[in-house]
């Protein structure tokens, strides 16, 4: 009765336009899409529809806390529409790719939801990425725009923006969020709210997420509005989020885990409050938990270990904390067992992948299940197979290769037909490269990995990518990069190098090699923690480098 509905969007929202398939995307086969719609997984809603639904339903709730700034859902909706107006006037619209390269700051929400409202396609770079990666994302995705911040953690992103604008022809706009300048160029984009929307179709690709690499270059993952929103609704429910929840965002904001498991989109869906932290370290996170009565957070295992082992833990009131998600890499049982007694909250293990499939232990699961398994799939229609190397299905309890297909798992990487042939079966299962065992109820335990990838505390490193960069060094004849065990990170990155015959070994040091890689412009977490100069690599009996021997050396 009688109340004016709030005009959350600039105009009356009409029906969605026709679906447009982005070139280079492998679509879901029609019979699967039909089944997922019939079963109510795909509801025919866009991420922007969901966002503005929450802006209406939770208008006066605080959505984002960033330092001293608190932004309500109503205010966020207004900021998003005004920025969408500005971006639209620059010519950014439906289907345009925009590389987003921002740290954990409130403006991230404006940018991402404005792009969704325009039907533009964000490409999610991590704050840690540097020139080599950003240039690659921009050119590979043929991005029309690149959005970053002036500087962060001592790195001059504004200079990077100038370089990208100069060297990637598709990039018409390199936009820099200015936190220091007086001119506030970026702020000027917030103008008249977007008044007409071209919008997009729920079956369209919503964004391109990055894969944890196994190849020379990172692969891009196309996720649709329909498929992603399904995981968001279910994740919010499985993680117990409500409009009373206060979720600490302590991991890199653009990672798939932080976006959706349950992540910022799960929070927006539930109308929860999100408290932004620049890092998960205890001296940053604990004061925020105590000040804002944080009820849940999502961490990777090394950060969970920092929380468990922190000397300042008793100085802060953490009693509001109810649930702690830990995922991205394997959490040891010893650490898992300590969470409840020492932090006073329920542990929820998360085993997910940007390609799709996400598993959670449930909040009502027994303590022994929660500490020993990485959880159960989200959907009854997630098809999970555990097979031997010949593709034969294995019985419960026997570890094997995890293959999966389902209502939110991609059918192929973006513009990557050759990789797709390797990583997807003919009937559309994604070969995850993970070795798992499954119990009778479907709970998975991760026991190993088949893919050539290093999981450095949740951050994924492709050995091939680093080997290729090392091979471009004039003193290096051959390079092999492997993961070696580390107490805290689980694995760290180690490079073995063979020098050219005429090179004096004294002229090459780990310090110099690190500097060389840094100058190439790559994310810091990919730079090997250790180097070893060797005369030759151990070989397998077929004459290939034995990475196993190197890992164990
Ligand atoms: C998440 O996504 P990605 O795409 O960075 O990495 C996926 C890979 C998995 O294939 C697996 O190898 C590993 O990361 N992984 C785990 C794990 N969670 C992820 N390995 C062991 N135990 C776990 N709990 O990492 C990601 C995406 C969504 C939610 C959570 C994590």
Automatic annotation (TrEMBL):
Record SUPFAM superfamilies: Acetyl-CoA synthetase-like (SSF56801)
GO molecular function, one term: medium-chain fatty acid-CoA ligase activity
One BP term from GO: fatty acid metabolic process
Domain AMP-dependent synthetase/ligase: 54-414
Keyword list, A-Z: Ligase
Domain AMP-binding enzyme C-terminal: 465-544
Xref: Pfam families: AMP-binding (PF00501), AMP-binding_C (PF13193)
Family listed: Belongs to the ATP-dependent AMP-binding enzyme family.
Protein name (Swiss-Prot/TrEMBL): 2,3-dihydroxybenzoate-AMP ligase
Organism: Denitrobacterium detoxificans
